[in-house]
Amino acid sequence: DPQLNPIYTFDSFIEGDSNRVARRAGKTVAEKPGANSFNPLVIYGGVGLGKTHLAQGIGNEVKRLHPNKVVLYVSSEKFINQFQDHSRNNAINDFIHFYQLIDVLIIDDVQFFARAEKSQDAFFAIFNHLHQSGKQLVLTSDKPPKDLDGMQERLLSRFRWGLSADLQIPDYETRIEILERKMKNDGLDMPKEVVKYVAYNINTNVRELEGALISLLAQSSLNKREIDLELAKKVLRNFVKTSSKEITIEAIQKMVCEYFDVSYDKLLQKTRKREIVQARQITMYLAKAFTKNSLKTIGEHFGGRDHTTVIHSCQTVKDLMDTDSLFRENVMELTQKVQLAAM
Ligand code: ADP
Ligand code: MG
Questions:
Q1: pLDDT of 122-163, one tens digit each?
Q2: From the CA of 49, how far away is ligand 2's center (Å)?
Q3: Where do the CATH 1.10.1750.10 domains begin and end in the chain?
Q4: What class has domain 249-341?
Q5: Residues 225, 231, 236, 242: is their CA dihedral positive or negative?
Q6: What is the ipTM score, two decimals?
Q7: How many other C-beta atoms are found inside a 10 Å radius of the C-beta of residue 33?
C-alpha cells in the first residue's frame, strides 16, 4: 500500500494526556471499523502534533486486523486534484464510484476542502454512501470542525455525527517518552539530563522535538564530540531563537499591571507606595531578562528614568527574592507568564 507508511503505528504513537482520547478512539475505530459510534472520527490539532501519524496508524492497524478490508488514505489536496482530473475528463461518476467501494476512507487535512465547492459536493456524495453502508470515515483537520470556514454546513453537520477529538502539545513527561522511544528506534543513546533538557525546552510540537534531536545528532557527528548538556545548549539556542517570538517591554508592562492589578499610569508615576514601586522594579527586571533592549531604552519606557535606576531595580529584585518568599513567588510566576508569552 503505497499511501500508508508502515512506520506510523499505534505502538510508535506515545500516549499522554494530550492525545489519549484521540488515540483510544482511533484504536476502537481500527478494531471495529464502521461498527462504532465514532463515525466519522475527526482528529484535529495544530501542525506537528501527530494528525498524520495517528490517521495512518489507524489505516495500518485496520490492514493488520482486517486484511480483507479496503483502506484508503488520501490527503484532501490529492482528493481535490483527482477530482479535478476526472471532472475535466467528464468522469466524475467514475471518481465517486471508486471512492464508494472503500471500507475505511481516511482523508488527511480536510481544511484544504475550504472553498473547493465541487470537490465538497463529490465528498458529500461519497460520505453519505459510505456512512449509510456502515463504512468508516476518518478525517483530520488543523482546526476544530466548527472553525472550518468555507466548508459546507451540510458537511459540517455530518462531521458532528461522530467524534471530534483533539491533539494537544504533549506535556513534559510525554515529551521525554517520545524522545526516548525515538532514540531507541534509531539505536541512539544520550544522557538523561540531555533528554530532559531538550524535552523541557522544546514545547511547541512533536515535529520540532524530533528536529531538535536530529540537529543534536548532526552537530555531534559533525564536531566528532559526544552529546552532552553543553552541546545541547548550543544547538538548542539556535532552535529556540528561530521558533520563539520577540517579547516587548510594553507587553511585559501589561502583564505586570494585570498581575498586580495596577494601572499602567500608576506603574510609571513617581510614588513611594511600596506595592507600586515593587511592581515597577519587577517589570524592569523582567524587561532586562527577556528583551534585548538596553538599560537606557528600558528606563525610557518608565517615564524617562535613567539607566542607573534600572540597574538599581534589578539588584533590588534579586535581593528581595533571596529574602522574601512571597515576593519570590510573585516574580517566579510572572517569569513563567512572560516565558509562555514568548513561545
Ligand atoms: P501533523 O500531521 O499533525 O502535522 P505528524 O503526524 O506529521 O503531525 O507528526 C509530526 C511528527 O511527530 C511525526 O514524525 C510523528 O511521528 C511525530 N509524533 C507526533 N505525535 C507523536 C506521538 N504521540 N508519539 C510519537 N511520535 C509522535
Ligand atoms: Mg499532517
A1: 999 999 999 999 999 999 999 999 999 999 999 999 999 999
A2: 8
A3: 249-341
A4: mainly alpha
A5: negative
A6: 0.99
A7: 24
